[in-house]
């Protein structure tokens, strides 16, 4: 029984691990873009295990690749031995990273990937100074938490790094929100110069930034901002780390990586989530001279293991063969355009934003920019009641987040859109 499972969960797991919904659900099966709970209720999934089930559920090509590896009897060997699946996947990722002379280090999660990127950047530059972005999220480990600019996700005020903070791309509130896109870029670059001159000792190791802020509610800056920042960084020899944990693999529709919207190439790129489609797989790609900045023996026991990289190879091959980046652009436009037309004009909707299949709706108290997390939660619960799973986020918990599998069909996009529009309008007390 779900109720019994909930009681058992609460008895043995920490209270700071949240569960979605007033009545939490257990997902027991899935196929395509749909999942079924323990009560037999089916849902169209628009959150994909927090943007992780990128290809969907029960995909034959991925299942068969994993089964072939299982049949060898080798589930784990450690990276002290050659792993064919790992080498093949690293070759594919290095080639697609856009980074010249790239090396790849596999980990198990985005947190570990960002931790590794921070390790090599600070070693390479011999500095523990980092530039990070307000409203960001980079993971739950010590250093990754230290560069997370969202107090809801910063479980400790202690920090092994010296961090200076830059403005985010928030268009709803904040000092830069009132500016045009071009003015915002200019102001953000000017701010970077001032931060370097006033808050650092000059020898900064790196800037870490998400092209679209995930936990931050899918906030993103105008295209071209990273290019403006990168020009300043290059003047000082500062490295640029693109956190592509949520934006990678074509999810934005317009590019394979989120950083490409800015016309720059990062020194380090971190990836996770979708590449494993549920299997624990992540890593960092970087220029060889940077990624080799580890002065001692190091490896990840489980990172890039035979099972996860077998899945990763199948995921990447499927993604490319089916041109899922183009599909993300096509079906994402159905959702974005539909939402803007149907609810974008409501005085409780501050913004419909995002790219491709990474979309958010921010809710505010009517006629203001004051966040309305209560309305967001009503919409969230109404979506579930209507048969749609979505996510929540934003600094104030007032953003409905959608990151469906990239295999979402046009018909499913329109089905989900109808549920979303009805949930938003009914929760806001707007007549149908």
Automatic annotation (TrEMBL):
Its EC number is 2.6.1.44. GO terms for molecular function: alanine-glyoxylate transaminase activity; pyridoxal phosphate binding. It is an enzyme of class 2 (transferase). Pfam families: Aminotran_3. The keyword Transferase applies. InterPro entries: Aminotrans_3 (IPR005814), PyrdxlP-dep_Trfase (IPR015424), PyrdxlP-dep_Trfase_major (IPR015421), PyrdxlP-dep_Trfase_small (IPR015422). Its cofactor is pyridoxal 5'-phosphate. Keywords: Aminotransferase, Pyridoxal phosphate, Transferase. PANTHER family: ALANINE--GLYOXYLATE AMINOTRANSFERASE 2, MITOCHONDRIAL, PTHR45688. Homotetramer. Belongs to the class-III pyridoxal-phosphate-dependent aminotransferase family. This is alanine--glyoxylate transaminase. It comes from Micromonospora acroterricola.
């Amino acid at each position: 029984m779900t109720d019994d499972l909930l009681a058992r969960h609460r008895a043995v797991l920490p209270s700071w691990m949240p569960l979605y919904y007033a009545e939490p659900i257990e997902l027991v099966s899935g196929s395509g873009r749909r999942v079924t709970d323990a009560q037999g209720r089916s849902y169209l999934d628009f959150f994909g295990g927090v943007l992780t089930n990128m290809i969907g559920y029960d995909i034959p090509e991925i299942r068969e690749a994993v089964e072939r590896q299982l049949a060898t009897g080798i589930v784990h060997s450690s990276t002290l031995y050659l792993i064919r699946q790992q080498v093949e996947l690293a070759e594919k990722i290095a080639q697609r990273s856009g980074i010249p002379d790239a090396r790849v280090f596999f980990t198990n999660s985005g947190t570990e990937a960002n931790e590794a990127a921070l390790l090599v950047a600070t070693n390479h530059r011999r500095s523990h100074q980092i530039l990070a972005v307000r409203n960001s999220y980079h993971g739950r480990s010590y250093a990754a938490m230290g560069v997370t600019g969202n107090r809801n996700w910063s479980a400790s005020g202690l920090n092994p790094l010296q961090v200076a903070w830059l403005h985010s791309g928030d268009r709803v509130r904040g000092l830069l929100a009132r500016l045009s896109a071009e003015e915002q870029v200019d102001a953000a670059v000017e701010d970077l110069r001032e931060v370097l001159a006033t808050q650092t000792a000059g020898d900064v190791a790196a800037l870490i930034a998400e092209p679209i802020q995930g936990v931050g509610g899918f906030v993103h800056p105008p295209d071209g901002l990273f290019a403006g920042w990168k020009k300043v960084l290059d003047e000082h020899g500062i490295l640029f780390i693109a956190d592509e944990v949520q934006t990678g693999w074509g999810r934005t529709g317009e590019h394979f990586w989120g950083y490409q919207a800015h016309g720059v190439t990062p020194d380090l790129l971190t990836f996770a989530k979708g590449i494993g489609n549920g299997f624990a797989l992540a890593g960092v790609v970087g220029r060889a001279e940077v990624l080799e900045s580890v002065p001692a023996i190091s490896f990840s026991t489980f990172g890039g293991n035979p099972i996860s990289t077998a899945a990763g190879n199948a995921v990447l091959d499927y993604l490319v063969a089916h041109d899922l980046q183009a599909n993300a652009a096509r079906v994402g436009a159905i959702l974005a355009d539909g939402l803007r037309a149907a609810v974008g004009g409501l005085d409780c909707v501050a913004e419909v934003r995002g790219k491709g299949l990474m979309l958010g709706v921010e809710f505010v108290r009517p006629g203001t920019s004051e966040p309305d997390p209560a309305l967001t939660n009503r919409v969230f619960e109404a979506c579930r009641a209507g048969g749609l799973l979505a996510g929540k986020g934003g600094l104030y918990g007032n953003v409905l987040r959608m990151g469906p599998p990239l295999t979402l069909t046009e018909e499913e996009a329109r089905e989900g859109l109808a549920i979303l529009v009805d949930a938003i309008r009914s929760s806001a007390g707007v007549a149908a």
